[in-house]
Amino acid sequence: MEFLKQEVVNKTAVVTINRPPANALAGAVITELDQILHDLETNNDIRVIVLKGEGRFFSAGADIKEFTSIDSGEKAIELATNGQKLMDRIENFPKPIIASIHGAALGGGLELAMSCHIRIVSENAKLGLPELSLGIIPGFAGTQRLPKYVGTAKAAEMMLTAEPISGVDAVKFGLANVAVPEEDLYEETMKLAKKIETKSPASIKAVLNLLTYAKTEQFSQGVEAEAKAFGEVFLTEDAKEGVSAFLEKRQPNFTGN
To answer: What average pLDDT does the segment 45-50 reach?
Structure first.
């Protein structure tokens, strides 16, 4: 694979996103993640999966450059839907997936992390959904998962201000399980993975399946509505301005059009 690396430690598969500089979730990365999940699901020697990022970040979001090639609402909806399908697959995966987050998990990167069963973060990591600073909205089910973890009011604040929170605050608000110094992150993640991998695969699978019953029919409706809204907002002049400003490294000038 071009953008993913895999290492097996005992019965844990460590999957590393390696697409410098920001490990952005380009379409090719999403495709590779889907493929590697297919392979790991049928590998009986693997009981736990750890997902992490190479370099400075876990994942700093979607590939904004790819946005410039989207010229219709249908293509924007397709982009959102493809990402949502991957996140849903991760959330419903029969083996536990632990997100080991350092540096930043922003936008699509946080949406990816939120779909994992467990999140361990470095204390100084930044987690957020900054899409509104680009004149768009989250499109990989972020509007539906973030309130589940931090509550509606905090989710609204995080999305509307586009400001991230630290790893320490992510634990405080229920977005992450534990925050540790960055130099201890991998070791602590693998300690947890080792505790889980000693359990019966059948019991692990049963618990993960039962956890999905907490999802309501409204969640599916919300995700569908998010993809549609993503397509509509993506066509606005403000969205074009936001993407252009990001790529040109300047402040956007939103006019409400």
So the answer is: 97
